Amino acid sequence: MQNWGFSVAPSRIIDLDKDDVSSYKIITDKVPSAKRCLMCGACSASCTSKEHIAFNFRKIHLMFRRGQLQNLSEELDKCMLCGKCRLVCPRGVNARAIIFNMRIILNDMTYKNIKV
Amino acid sequence: MMPYEHFVIPFLAGTFFLFAVIFFKFYSWLKTLDKKQRYFVNKNIFSFKTILAISEIVKEALIHLKIYKKNLLLGYMHMSFALGWFLLIIAGRIESSLHSGKFFNAPWMGIFFKYFATDTKDFYLKSFFTFIMDFLLLIVLTGLILALIKRFRSKILGMKKTTKHIIYDRIALTALWFIFPLRLLAESITSSIHGNGGFLTGTLGNFFSFMAVQNMELPMWWAYSLSLGIFFVFLPFSRYMHIPSEVVLIFLRQWGAQTGEQYSGYSELQINSCSRCGICIDVCQLNYAADKNNVQSVHLIRDKRYKKLTDEVVNNCLMCGRCVESCPVGLELTLIRQQLRNKKEIPGKIYYKFTDIEYEKKEGHIIYFAGCMTHLTPTIIIAMKNIFSHVGEKYWFMDEEKGICCGRPLRQQGFVQQAKNLMSKNYRIIINSGARVLLTSCPICYKSFKEEYKLDIPVYHHTEYIEKLLNEGKLKLKKRWTSVVYHDPCELGRGSQIYMAPRNILKSFVNMHTTNQEKEIALCCGGSLSNAILDLPEQIKIRDNALAELTKNEPDILVTACPLCKKSFVHGNKAVVKDIAEIVAENLITKTALSKNNVKEKIQHEIKNH
Question: Which of B183, B216, B392, B532 has a beta carbon 3.0–4.6 Å from A100's, enabling a disulfide?
Answer without folding.
Answer: B532
